[in-house]
UniProtKB/TrEMBL annotation:
Family designation: Belongs to the 5'-nucleotidase family.
All copies of domain Calcineurin-like phosphoesterase, residue ranges: 8-223
Keyword DNA repair: no
Transmembrane segments: none
Protein source organism: Ciceribacter selenitireducens ATCC BAA-1503
InterPro entries with a match to the protein in the record: 5'-Nucleotdase_C, 5'-Nucleotdase_C_sf, 5_nucleotidase/apyrase, Calcineurin-like_PHP, Metallo-depent_PP-like
GO terms under biological process: nucleotide catabolic process
Protein name from the UniProt record: Uncharacterized protein
Length: 482
C-alpha cells in the first residue's frame, strides 16, 4: 500500500422519503428562514460530482429513516422510494422507521435494495440470531473499511409495538467491541466506521466507551454538525435531515489509521444540477400523486415547523385539529422531529402528509391528573436523561390546553413543578378527557375508556384549516423551564 491513501465518506441521514426539493428551516438572525433544499435529483448530482472528484474512492452510507415520512413513501409502505434509493449508489444503510410496517415487511423491502442493511444490534427474540448482517467490508483505493450498523434501539421501547414483533434492539458495547476486533484482526480493516441510528448523545457516549472506532456516522437526532465532534480518537458527524444536507468526510489514511481529515456539511441547494436520470425516476414515482398532493387546503399565517425542543408551531396546529375533531380541551401528540417546515402561505395536501405521514386515527381517553404528570415525567426523562442511553424521546411530548413549569436538570420523576388546566392547578385525582394520536402520543398503559374515532389525523387537519386553521394562543400547551 502507498504511504498515504485517500478515502471520502459521504453521509445521508434521516432523509424520511423526501424525494423532491422542499422548504427547510435554517435559523437566521431574526428567526427562521426557509430556503428550498434537498431533492434526490440534486443529491444524485452532488454525489456524481464527488465521485468524479475522488476518483471513485467514495463510500456513500445512509443512516436510515429513508423509507418513511412522506406520502409516496407511506402509501407504498416504503416500496415507492426503492427505485430512487437504489439509483443513488448507496453502499450500506442501517434503520429505524423502516420497521414501521413490521420487521417481516422491512426484510422483504431490504431484499429489493442493491445495498445491504447492517444492524449488529437487531436480534430475533426466539433464537437470538440476527436478521441482518452486522457489518460489511469495502475496498476503496487500496483502503479496507469495515462498516458496522447500529439500528435505532428505541424501536422496541418507545415506538408502537407492531414495529418490533419478534425483534429486540440493544446497545451492547461488548458485542460492538468484538465485531471491531474481528474486522481489524481477521479482515485486516484499516478504518472502522459505525453507521449509527442511535442519536448524537448516544454516539458520543459510545465513542467514549468503545475503543477502536475511527468514524461514527450519527443519525436520528437530525443534528446539522458544521464541525465534526472528536471524542478521544473517534470522529463523529451528523448531517441534518430530509435530504437537505450531505455530510462529507475526506480522510487521509496511513499505515496506522487516519492521519488527518476534512469535514464539510453540504447544503443541497441549487448549486447542484439535477441529475436527469434521477429526475426521471422521481417524476415517475410522483406523477400519480401530484395533482392530489398539490391541492390547497388552507392557509397558514405563521410558519409551521418542528425545529424547537419544548413546543412546535406545527404541532400546535395538529393538536388544535385533533382537539377540534374530538371536542376535548386537552390533546397530546409526540415530539416528532421529522416533517419539512411549511412557510406562511398556502398549505397543500402534501404538507399535511409531511406533518403526520402515519395518518393515524384521532383517539380519545380519560386521564387522571396523576396520569398526565407521570406520563410527562416519563417523557421528560426519555428526552433529557443525563444518561444518553436512557434518552429515547424525540423532542418534548407536544400537548395542548395545559401549561407546565419545571426544571429539566432535576432528577428523573421530579422535574415538573406545576401543571395548570383552565387557569388553575390540575389536581391528581381530577379526570379529564383528552384526544391524542398514536401510542407515542399517549402510551397504552395510561388512561381508560380509550377508543379510536372514525376521523383520521389528516382529515382533522383539513377540516381545521377549512375552518380557519390557527390555534388560539390561549389554547396552545407550553412547558416553561422554571
Ligand atoms: Zn430515527
Amino acid at each position: 500500500m502507498p504511504e498515504r491513501n485517500k478515502l471520502t465518506i459521504v453521509q445521508l441521514n434521516d432523509v424520511h422519503g423526501y424525494l423532491e426539493p422542499h422548504p427547510e428551516l435554517v435559523w437566521g438572525h431574526s428567526g427562521p428562514l426557509f430556503p428550498i433544499l434537498g431533492g434526490f435529483a440534486r443529491i444524485a448530482g452532488a454525489l456524481r460530482r464527488i465521485r468524479v472528484e475522488t476518483g471513485g474512492n467514495l463510500l456513500t452510507l445512509d443512516n436510515g429513516d429513508m423509507f418513511h415520512g412522506t406520502y409516496p413513501a407511506v402509501v407504498s409502505k416504503g416500496y415507492g422510494i426503492v427505485p430512487a434509493a437504489n439509483a443513488l449508489g448507496i453502499d450500506a444503510m442501517t434503520a429505524h422507521w423502516e420497521f414501521a410496517w413490521g420487521p417481516d415487511h422491512f426484510e422483504k423491502l431490504a431484499a429489493k435494495l442493491n445495498y445491504p442493511v447492517l444492524a449488529l444490534n437487531c436480534y430475533r427474540t426466539n433464537d437470538g440470531t440476527r436478521p441482518f448482517l452486522p457489518s460489511a467490508i469495502f475496498n476503496r483505493g487500496g483502503v479496507t473499511v469495515g462498516v458496522i450498523g447500529m439500528a435505532a434501539t428505541i424501536i422496541d421501547k418507545s415506538m408502537p409495538p407492531s414495529f418490533s414483533v419478534g425483534r429486540r434492539f440493544d446497545i451492547d458495547e461488548v458485542a460492538l467491541s468484538m465485531e471491531i476486533q474481528r474486522l481489524r484482526n481477521e479482515e485486516v480493516c484499516q478504518v472502522i466506521v459505525v453507521l449509527s441510528h442511535l442519536g448524537l448523545p448516544q454516539d458520543a457516549k459510545l465513542a467514549e466507551a468503545v475503543d477502536g472506532i475511527d468514524v461514527i456516522l450519527s443519525g436520528h437526532t437530525h443534528n446539522r454538525l458544521r464541525t465534526a465532534i472528536l471524542v478521544r480518537e473517534t470522529i463523529i458527524i451528523q448531517s441534518g435531515c430530509h435530504g437537505s444536507f450531505l455530510g462529507r468526510l475526506d480522510l487521509v489514511i496511513g499505515e496506522r489509521g487516519i492521519l488527518s481529515f476534512d469535514h464539510m456539511l453540504i447544503p443541497i441547494d441549487d448549486r447542484f444540477q439535477a441529475d436527469e436520470a434521477m429526475q426521471q425516476i422521481v417524476d415517475d414515482i410522483m406523477r400519480p400523486h401530484r395533482s392530489e398532493l398539490g391541492r390547497q387546503v388552507g392557509v397558514t399565517l405563521i410558519p409551521l415547523h418542528r425545529n424547537l425542543q419544548l413546543y412546535s408551531p406545527m404541532d400546535d396546529l395538529l393538536l388544535h385539529a385533533i382537539a377540534m375533531a374530538a371536542g376535548t380541551d386537552v390533546a397530546f401528540s409526540n415530539g416528532w422531529r421529522y416533517g419539512a417546515p411549511i412557510p406562511a402561505g398556502p398549505v397543500t395536501v402534501n404538507d399535511l402528509w409531511n406533518i403526520i405521514p402515519t395518518n393515524p386515527s384521532v383517539s380519545v381517553t380519560d386521564l387522571l391528573g396523576a396520569d398526565i404528570r407521570q406520563m410527562m415525567e416519563e417523557n421528560l426523562e426519555r428526552t433529557f436523561s443525563p444518561d444518553p442511553y436512557r434518552q429515547m424521546g424525540g423532542y418534548l411530548k407536544r400537548f395542548r390546553g395545559l401549561t407546565m413549569f419545571g426544571k429539566l436538570e432535576n432528577p428523573a420523576g421530579h422535574r415538573i413543578e406545576h401543571i395548570f388546566f383552565k387557569g388553575r392547578e390540575l389536581e391528581d385525582d381530577e379526570e379529564i378527557a383528552v384526544s391524542f394520536v398514536t401510542a407515542q402520543g399517549v402510551p397504552e398503559k395510561y388512561g381508560h375508556a380509550r377508543r379510536d374515532l372514525s376521523i383520521r389525523a389528516i382529515e382533522a387537519l383539513e377540516a381545521c384549516l377549512a375552518a380557519g386553521g390557527a390555534a388560539s394562543p390561549d389554547d396552545v400547551g407550553r412547558f416553561y423551564v422554571s
